[in-house]
Task: structure prediction
Amino acid sequence: MIKIGCPSFGTDCGRSGIGSYLRELLDRFDDDALAKEFSFELIGPEVDRNHYLKGKKNILWHQVEGVDGSPLQNFFWNQFSLPKLCKERGYDLLFLPAANRRLCRKAPCPTVGTVHDLATLHLKNKYDFSHAVFNRNLLPYLIRGLDHIITVSQFSKNDIVRFAHVPASRVTVIPLAADHKRFFPSDNIDLLKTWMKEKFDVDGPYLLYISRLEHPGKNHVNLIKAFELFRDETDIPYYLVLPGPDKERSEEIHSVANASKYASSIKFLGFVDYEDMPDLYRGAALFVLPSFFEGFGLPVLEAMACKVPVITSNAASLPEVSGSLSPHFDPNDPVAMRDAIVAVLGDEKNRETLAEKGVAWAHNFSWDRTVQETLEIFTRIAKEGKKQ
Result:
């Protein structure tokens, strides 16, 4: 039996890509057969237990409150209290699912961390000065202390090897996937139209981009500009639907949208419930991911699995995740983004072909395989740790 501790700090209680990653893993770790080989214990506040462990019977919980009260408090807890907790709880392995945000340098047991990306080293003005210093100086140092690193794309692995100076042999790429039990096509378009009108006041076809509202990294402003250019060329009253919570400099995104001549067609939905996400994808005419940087970009595969055509920027890992068949554009160029939108929505045959091929592409990725490969890493690193 391998006892694994797993802190939930840095996962935003499920309201982020990292939170979705942890939830998908825990859903599959909670398995009767796995319970004979692994004992998982989630470390975190009660709010995280209520979100991640609802309905689960095989995953334990150790309550820790108040760790994320401030960046300094969080840092010291991870460096001193977490290693002590590992010893007290008798963990054979410490798994850090948000290791590009929260991690400790040393622990009394082997450590495996998932470093989703090093976006903070690529995007200027993403954080204030103190965060920038931590991300550029301390974060690579802390990453080097992990016994093994999981990451989600070859692009991110290359970054980790380059910036954290970690041998490539200590970094394993394990891609994410869409949950095909939740994300799948629907033929009942009329029902989806009615639902969107009643639920979100969207009464017409729409372009969709799901992301936290963070400027400039998530690139909402250029998407809004591209949407304006697109609407200038079409008689169809498309909406631009932008779900996601307000984050850094979101007021600048709202300001640009409010100033647009198509402001009434730009819908900010805020945080959308987990249960509503599949239908939000299914009803879209097109999914656009214009981000300047993504370590993976899971919404790409979720949209494809729902048979929605997808276009993305050509930045970071997005061409790797979306495949060669999806149109890509320069995220700095609203005109190029507009042209990619027109190429799909202006040609119904092309749109349908892209949607069909997207479904097939999404099925190349599997959460079951992600979990299997993750558990293989856990087993190997835990056994190696016991031999030392």
Remarks:
- The first strand starts at residue 2 and ends at 7.
- The chain has two domains: 2-177+366-387, 189-362.
- The longest helix spans residues 367-387.
- The mean pLDDT is 93.
